[in-house]
Amino acid sequence: MYIPFIATALVAAISVSAQGKGKYPAGIVADPNFPKHTVYAPKDTSVKTPILVWGESGCINNGGVMSAFLTQIASQGVTVFANGPRSGGGGGQTLKNNLMKEALDILDTKASDPKYAHLDLTRVAAGGQSCGGLEAAVMALDKRVKFIGMFNQGGTDANKKGLPVPNNGNVPDGSKFNVPTFFFAGGPSDNPGQNGAKDYEKMPAGVPAWLGNYASRGHGGTYSEANGGTYGVVGANWVKFVFFGDKEAAEFFKAGKAAGLGWSGIKSKNLDKLPVS
Questions:
Q1: What range does the record give for the signal peptide (predicted)?
Q2: Domains in the chain, CATH or no CATH each
Q3: Which of 16, 63, 91, 153 fits a 20 to 30 Å CA distance from 100?
């Protein structure tokens, strides 16, 4: 069931059945300016929100396939632009067409539009799961992106066979990640996620980074569970830490509290460089 409401920025339809567990109940928002994306946002558009551009597993052209997880992220006070419309399909195309970049390009043209005044274009992260992580890696080269979230993927030794990859087949590895990057992997069976572990080791000196493995669920994770399951918990803490400097979220990563949820192989470096309020 969806209920219409008038938002400052958008005429929207927000699900009342799954609104996330964060401070700001959220859901999917319809915006005709983004026909190639699915937008997740807090209902309360008086809140100034940072932006996450997101790539789906398989680089599938459907932004609704991880709705439980992304609604949980949005409920932390984040507007998410997920690649692909809810009714879309077909793998690989969102990587070829670089829909993350397209979302930010559109937002740049709307910078002076009062309907989008609640979006903070100075706080942008790129994230994605599996093939979507390759899209996030590509965006590591975009100066508008201040943070990267690699979920079950890495640029090192990435399997690009059969994928219409942009930039002449180039997907940067961790040596090109010059912004704080968090790697969420699925243990030894998660081969793409272990590429992320290689990226972690390659990152430039001094750049904040975190790496952890949730081995019990492998590559597929818990994204389809209510509120994204365990990945929803770590994802929520990630955005609260990097975007808002939330003290409890910072301690979740800096004090090893993810281990209490079953995460292992945890490594971190330079996290003290991220501001905490």
A1: 1-18
A2: 2-273 (3.40.50.1820)
A3: 16
